[in-house]
């Protein structure tokens, strides 16, 4: 055990956040799935609790082993991951499991396990963009040599994710744009890319409307229209139930396991788990959860500033930015500041592939942090030796 602890390196604050969010996940998932498990599994209310516990344990093991890997290896993995993501996303669109007219999942035939290919694509894309940004710093202001090799992979992956999951595609695109801005990509290039993306989205909606092949676009339009409507009766059912739960929670909440919104909210264990946290732990408890994600971002910014190599710096910051933006968007949806999306709360919402790939992202961030700490320790020893 002591040997394991000695090998556990990296930012201790980020490790603390991981265990804190895991504890929140177990409490919130158990509360939000108790009634469902009782109905489905004949009184076994702990079924989903133990399932989530096993996933979180696997996630912590992934974090540990990922943080022990030299982060420079992820630069090579990025190329393979990016190239594999393209056929996986194409296969998902053509043959993936459908839910609400969206093909997001691939089902593995032997073990009957489903996973979202967009989770693989997000991680692979961020590693690839970080690699390209670090390599192209000398020609970053050249459109053909510097900008296109970075932005074309972003356009391809986001374009393949968008038909089934627009919220994830927009989140991924925005996070990549932010990372490019930090990586000194000229604003005129980024503005042009944002304009082109906006035109493509509008065209996609227009073509779907004219051809009658609306599919997911009809769902997106309905969500936007209900969000912008001033009539309260036009609000989506889940938004109404989330608001009731939040109001009942007040400042300190109703206490663990005392949620009533869980009995009415669709997917209270995933898409609306933050509403359950607000109801049971109040504004104070929700603030602690939000603060955990913001502290994760601040610690990652510290890693970015102290990392001596561009790839590690961009990798740590890029992965943390997408996790925190996803968390904030999930919270904004739950309190009706944004239209309803399918975004989960990282490391808290119930899930398999999402927890696994979130854990892998955090493990990579800690890998960079570990090497930053080792470099600082070597510098300190060298300084002491020089002073002596």
UniProtKB/TrEMBL annotation:
It is found in: Membrane. It comes from the Bacteria. The chain crosses the membrane at residues 13-36, 48-67, 73-96, 150-182, 189-208, 272-297, 309-333, 345-368. It catalyses: [GlcNAc-(1->4)-Mur2Ac(oyl-L-Ala-gamma-D-Glu-L-Lys-D-Ala-D-Ala)](n)-di-trans,octa-cis-undecaprenyl diphosphate + beta-D-GlcNAc-(1->4)-Mur2Ac(oyl-L-Ala-gamma-D-Glu-L-Lys-D-Ala-D-Ala)-di-trans,octa-cis-undecaprenyl diphosphate = [GlcNAc-(1->4)-Mur2Ac(oyl-L-Ala-gamma-D-Glu-L-Lys-D-Ala-D-Ala)](n+1)-di-trans,octa-cis-undecaprenyl diphosphate + di-trans,octa-cis-undecaprenyl diphosphate + H(+). InterPro entries: FtsW/RodA. It holds the Pfam family FTSW_RODA_SPOVE. It comes from Chitinophaga pollutisoli. The lineage of its organism: Bacteria, Pseudomonadati, Bacteroidota, Chitinophagia, Chitinophagales. Its EC number is 2.4.99.28. Keywords: Cell shape, Glycosyltransferase, Membrane, Peptidoglycan synthesis, Transferase, Transmembrane, Transmembrane helix. It is a multi-pass membrane protein. This is Probable peptidoglycan glycosyltransferase FtsW. Belongs to the SEDS family. FtsW subfamily.
